[in-house]
Design goal:
By secondary structure, the chain is mainly β. The chain has one helix and ten strands. Strands 1-2-3-4-5-8-9-10 form an eight-stranded antiparallel barrel. The radius of gyration is 18 Å and the shape is elongated.
Length: 169
């Protein structure tokens, strides 16, 4: 039993080191989709639709175990409003196969930029597949804005589950 445990731990270490070194350096472009569930107080507004899907375009620069990522998310028909929400965000992510990090961004909705920044915490798994990799992740966004004139609540916090297909250069 002890011997099998040692072999499993050794195999996981080799896998982690191989995936970390493969994706650690260089620039990658990615595209994906997210499921967004709004959990902030605005979800209690009767006309607000708390569930959404969005598209994301991203670029990532890897410098060892630290990655810098820029994302732009597009949510058509945000909250059932028939207006699109754009979310540009920047992240600092630490890790390789398994990673986590934090980000900051803003939102653009109905011709207005958010009056407060968007903060995010993200964790995920970046699975290598040759020239490509698949990043499956979860994110919590702390969002607050007064862009909705007919809504009393400014709390737009959301939980996002998504996947991004990365192509490395």
């Amino acid at each position: 039993m002890r011997r099998n445990t040692v072999w499993i731990i050794a195999a996981l270490c080799v896998l982690f080191a191989a995936t970390t070194s493969r994706a650690a350096l260089g620039f990658r472009l990615g595209a994906g989709a997210h499921y967004v569930r709004t959990v902030g107080e605005i979800k209690d507004t009767p006309e607000f639709d708390a569930d959404a899907f969005n598209l994301v375009g991203a670029g990532k620069l890897g410098l060892g175990l630290v990655n810098f990522e820029l994302d732009v998310e597009w949510l058509p028909d945000y909250g059932g409003s028939s207006e699109a929400l754009w979310l540009p965000e920047a992240f600092v992510l630490v890790g390789g196969l398994i990673y986590g990090g934090a980000g900051i961004g803003t939102g653009y909705f109905d011709g207005e930029w958010f009056d407060k920044p968007v903060y995010a915490l993200r964790a995920g798994v970046d699975i290598p597949l040759g020239l490509f990799s698949v990043d499956v992740n979860a994110k919590y966004e702390f969002m607050s804005s007064s862009v909705f004139e007919d809504v009393d609540s400014e709390d737009l916090d959301s939980v996002t589950f998504g996947a991004i297909l990365w192509f490395g250069f």
